[in-house]
Design the sequence.
């Protein structure tokens, strides 16, 4: 790409959709990203920007001045503009806002009033609303005066004189009903409006549950303030699902796959440092049994197996519980059952694999005692691991700590400490 | 719940939507699940069934006979019926099909002809199609003859005489355009039809990229055979994102959070067995340096730290690469850049934390040599871990092995073996 002449690349880019250009930018290392951005047609810059993840976008915005930013954001939905502005430093945001037209600014500010991770932060303000006393014929004529309807419009919103939400009028209904009928007679009141301060993950759960395409957003007085469309919700679902995966490795779900070296190194350093602390704790546990290790070198050889099997068993439980929590399946009422299930499963597997390992250890070192010790230690560690895997995420959540982020480290600490302690402790007692 | 009388529970259930009932079933242990299912109103059983995950659903289907199944599936979309049938044994599926009405059977069979994980398996056949030569007025009158339009209808499909797909006619367009205009003049040909054999993950990527709500599905002759709606795609996105998380712990993304003990134990046994093999390999590596361990017991105390830090560093890289691959960001062209970035980041963090650890080890054991050995071993292992974390998933994919499933085990094997080998090997050479 670097070697191609700019003109050819520009021609190639002009044949791509904004979405494809965004994907290309996200899949490019930083330097190529900057070069590509300069070659993009000015007209689609805004749309491309809107498709990028927050982190990649802020890299590109960092190279622009206020005027360029305002130009780029023209023609974007208010929610997308708000989304972009929220990543900017306060000062730059104020500058960009004051450079916008008054109508645009008002729209964007109404979205900015809400936290980014709520329904209000997700919504756009492109709603078409009608009164319940109109006939469908009047509504049809009103719509025909529009050049086009806002994207993803599948329903109109029915509101009263005070702008309070009453229900939906699906376009499909409008098209299949006698035009002489009034809106009131066909309004769909099944869809509960979403309060603007509802967390976005809960909004996503509702959309997923009820297969909505658009849903109305209301303020505390039940006044219609905007609508949420499925395309923005899909991003929330994707990020929510990625959150568990990335957090378990101490990463952020928004992390740019192609972030530069220094940023990557800085972000990961903390996680490695935390892990070093827990590993030191495990080493300290081992050091308590220095005398025994000195006598029986086989213990040093076998001890990582006990810790590792506990870690794997625990992480299986942890992953199932974290996923279950993300799907909203786990609460106080079924946690007891879940723990006893995990306990049962852990006991069965502990018996199976500890005996296998006991036989191997006995044959390997020609020592029956070491077989018995490793069997006992593995059973203790696998059972502890399963209980820790089930309890830790729930306990962390109760303490308002993200279980996906802290659960893995906490679990490894438990399985390492219990693994080394039980194996070396039993050995010290047995050989002592 | 167990103690409540059936009637009260039944009344409570009748106030819930099918989606909420499905969520309740999924959040319940197996025995309560069976009790709840019996108390559900017959009318909503089909809808509830359709909302359940495959695994929970097949547990419930296992308790029904053919007649019950046919009754339950009445009124469901063809794609949902096909989805349910595909989980059944071949013999039962044939029985249920032959007990259905001829029209229903034909519809379901047209979906069943395609693999479950393709566009054809995702689609439903509820399309409304119109010819390009009609005026919008005729289309409007045609629509008004329908009682209602299929769910999530936001566009009509424009096809020629042979039933071949030409383009979309969005309902919004229909409502804002002069009725005297013909379909041909306003048809939207931007949306490329989806071939019925496209994998569902690629379908999901297209929907996510272009913010589609519905999209047409065509056969190899470009004939319209059905449509895919966003609600079915959201499930594919959710499952795809969960796949990486669950696979890294050796689990299936469809795994029932409340599966019974024995099924859970059986599924996890294999993964623990595989891990035991890799842990044994690591132990064998340690046993090669038995003599050195016998002489310097500090090595046994510190060796888990080297392995563990490598494991954490590697899993961070692995997770970023697996997520990048799932998002379609990583290919041959940028892999080289990614590897050098990971290498750079690994070197920086290796230098930082190995020196910290070296100082700690030196002070702890009052031995300068052990400080130098652990610094060198950690640098070697962290750098190897980063390279392995980047290369393994790409190599596994090239071998058609699921990187999310096999990547974690393969990585741990590398970091354990290299960690113990470098630390104990250097020590043997140094103290030897």
Sequence:
């Amino acid at each position: 790409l670097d070697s191609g002449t700019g003109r050819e690349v520009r021609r190639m880019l002009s044949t791509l959709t904004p979405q494809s250009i965004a994907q290309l930018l996200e899949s490019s290392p930083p330097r190529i990203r900057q070069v590509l951005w300069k070659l993009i047609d000015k007209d689609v810059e805004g749309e491309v920007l809107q498709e990028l993840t927050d982190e990649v976008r802020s890299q590109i915005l960092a190279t622009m001045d206020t005027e360029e930013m305002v130009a780029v954001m023209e023609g974007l939905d208010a929610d997308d503009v708000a989304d972009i502005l929220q990543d900017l430093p306060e000062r730059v945001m104020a500058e960009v806002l004051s450079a916008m037209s008054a109508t645009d600014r008002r729209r964007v500010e109404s979205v900015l009033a809400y936290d980014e991770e709520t329904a209000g932060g997700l919504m756009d303000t492109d709603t078409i609303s009608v009164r319940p006393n109109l006939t469908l014929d009047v509504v049809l004529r009103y719509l025909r005066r529009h050049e086009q309807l806002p994207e993803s419009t599948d329903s109109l919103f029915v509101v009263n004189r005070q702008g309070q939400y009453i229900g939906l009028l699906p376009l499909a209904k409008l098209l299949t009903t006698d035009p002489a009928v009034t809106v009131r007679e066909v309004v769909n009141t099944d869809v509960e409006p979403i309060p603007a301060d509802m967390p976005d993950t809960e909004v996503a759960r509702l959309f997923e549950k009820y297969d909505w395409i658009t849903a109305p957003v209301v303020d505390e007085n039940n006044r219609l303030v905007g609508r949420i469309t499925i395309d923005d919700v899909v991003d929330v679902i994707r990020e929510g699902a990625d959150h568990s995966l990335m957090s378990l490795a101490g990463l952020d779900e928004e992390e740019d796959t192609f972030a530069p070296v220094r940023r990557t190194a800085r972000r990961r350093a903390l996680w490695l440092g935390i892990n070093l602390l827990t590993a030191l704790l495990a080493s300290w546990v081992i050091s308590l049994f220095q005398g025994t290790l000195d006598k029986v070198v086989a213990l040093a050889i076998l001890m990582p197996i006990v810790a590792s099997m506990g870690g794997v068993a625990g992480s299986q439980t942890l992953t199932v519980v974290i996923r279950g929590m993300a799907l909203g399946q786990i609460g106080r009422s079924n946690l007891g059952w879940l723990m006893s299930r995990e306990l049962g499963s852990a006991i069965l597997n502990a018996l199976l694999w500890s005996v296998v390992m006991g036989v191997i250890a006995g044959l390997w070192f020609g020592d029956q005692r070491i077989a018995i010790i490793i069997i006992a230690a593995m059973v203790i560690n696998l059972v502890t691991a399963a209980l820790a895997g089930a309890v830790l995420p729930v306990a962390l959540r109760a303490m308002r700590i993200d279980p996906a982020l802290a659960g893995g480290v906490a679990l490894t600490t438990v399985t390492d400490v219990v693994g080394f302690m039980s194996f070396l402790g039993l050995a010290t007692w047995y050989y002592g």
